[in-house]
């Protein structure tokens, strides 16, 4: 199985990725959060910083573009290619209202003719000779049956990999991934498939691979945020080492202190990470409240020290909603 770290906008930027790569093994590829293609505005400094090769110390990174405009997409893809990337992912999965209302992300799935024309332009453009395009998609916007028309469209193009999160836009992250339609996708797709969705524990992984032994690639998001060593646990049944988790935390914290500097901004980033990471610890509830209430580095460091000293890794940990 190939394991990919999912794109997680606002949480997993280059500081987090580098810390992850330095402390944990077995991620075959990291996907960067989406960049909105816009020829006029170009890249924001934040977007550019996140994918600069020198900010991603030797890890394999796939930048992602959010777009419904082929000419903007091609322009952005050219710039990303010039930065040294030869694989780019198209985001057809984002369910957020702001994105969907502009017919982007999973909103684009409802406009099948336009989507086909977009892919036609992209795959027949000059840049497609230099860059392999993969696609991250949901099953549809309002009904999972939309997928049958979508897969016919995707099959017309040499998609490097079709990453399927088998929910529809209106699910956001509610309900369960639709494994019935995913199973059909496996026989219908002419392109390689990757599965994404709700693999939070070793047991989730085992159940999934027993049902789908033919799947060769899997993308993990929230499961890795809660247990950054999840892939090692899957491969070797080992429990995360508390000292390694501490080193990982310290790397992220030092990275944000260096890049963001302003106390409030650094703490807000760390609080976002703890929303998930706290689930690796026993008796974690009171600590999360104190972490969230921290308004200075001193308060923050004190509670984190206490957490690592007083609590153990929860062997049953895994992301839970
Ligand atoms: C906070 C957050 C940010 C996300 N940002 C992106 C993004 O930038 N691009 C994208 O394709 N998906 C994004 N996703 C979706 C994830 O990549 C992934 O598809 C989703 O979390 C389901 O996988 P999981 O069940 O393993 O978490 C985001 C999800 C979350 C929770």
Automatic annotation (TrEMBL):
<keyword id="KW-0521">NADP</keyword>
<dbReference type="InterPro" id="IPR035587">
    <property type="entry name" value="DUS-like_FMN-bd"/>
</dbReference>
<comment type="function">
    <text>Catalyzes the synthesis of 5,6-dihydrouridine (D), a modified base found in the D-loop of most tRNAs, via the reduction of the C5-C6 double bond in target uridines.</text>
</comment>
<keyword id="KW-0560">Oxidoreductase</keyword>
<feature type="domain" description="DUS-like FMN-binding">
    <location>
        <begin position="30"/>
        <end position="242"/>
    </location>
</feature>
<keyword id="KW-0819">tRNA processing</keyword>
<dbReference type="InterPro" id="IPR001269">
    <property type="entry name" value="DUS_fam"/>
</dbReference>
<dbReference type="Pfam" id="PF01207">
    <property type="entry name" value="Dus"/>
</dbReference>
<keyword id="KW-0288">FMN</keyword>
<dbReference type="InterPro" id="IPR013785">
    <property type="entry name" value="Aldolase_TIM"/>
</dbReference>
<comment type="similarity">
    <text>Belongs to the dus family.</text>
</comment>
<protein>
    <recommendedName>
        <fullName>tRNA-dihydrouridine synthase</fullName>
        <ecNumber>1.3.1.-</ecNumber>
    </recommendedName>
</protein>
<dbReference type="InterPro" id="IPR018517">
    <property type="entry name" value="tRNA_hU_synthase_CS"/>
</dbReference>
<keyword id="KW-0285">Flavoprotein</keyword>
């Amino acid at each position: 199985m190939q394991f990919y770290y999912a794109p997680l906008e606002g949480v997993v930027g280059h500081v987090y990725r580098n810390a992850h790569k330095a402390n944990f093994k077995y991620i075959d590829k990291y996907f960067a959060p989406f960049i909105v293609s816009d020829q006029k505005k170009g890249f924001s400094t934040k977007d550019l910083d996140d994918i600069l090769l020198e900010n991603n110390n030797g890890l394999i990174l796939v930048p992602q573009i959010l777009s419904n405009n082929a000419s903007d997409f091609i322009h952005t893809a050219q710039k990303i290619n010039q930065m040294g990337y030869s694989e780019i992912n198209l985001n057809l999965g984002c369910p957020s209202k702001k994105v969907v209302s502009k017919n982007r992300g999973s909103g684009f799935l409802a406009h099948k003719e336009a989507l086909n024309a977009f892919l036609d332009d992209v795959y027949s453009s000059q840049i497609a000779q230099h860059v392999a395009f993969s696609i991250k998609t949901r099953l549809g916007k309002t009904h999972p049956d939309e997928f049958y028309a979508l897969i016919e469209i995707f099959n017309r193009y040499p998609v490097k990999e079709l990453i399927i999160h088998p929910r529809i836009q209106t699910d956001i992250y509610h309900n369960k991934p639709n494994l019935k339609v995913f199973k059909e996708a496996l026989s219908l797709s002419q392109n390689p498939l990757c599965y994404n969705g709700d693999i939070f524990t070793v047991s989730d992984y085992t159940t999934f691979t027993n049902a789908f032994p033919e799947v060769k690639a899997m993308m993990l998001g929230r499961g890795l945020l809660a247990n950054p060593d999840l892939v090692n646990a899957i491969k070797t049944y080992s429990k995360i080492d508390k000292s390694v988790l501490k080193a990982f935390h310290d790397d992220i914290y030092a990275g944000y202190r260096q890049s963001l500097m302003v106390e409030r901004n650094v703490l807000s980033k760390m609080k976002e990470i703890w929303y998930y990471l706290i689930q690796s610890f026993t008796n974690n509830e009171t600590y999360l409240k104190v972490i969230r209430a921290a308004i200075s580095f001193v308060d923050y460091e004190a509670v984190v020290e206490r957490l690592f000293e007083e609590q153990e890794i929860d062997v049953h940990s895994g992301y839970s909603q």
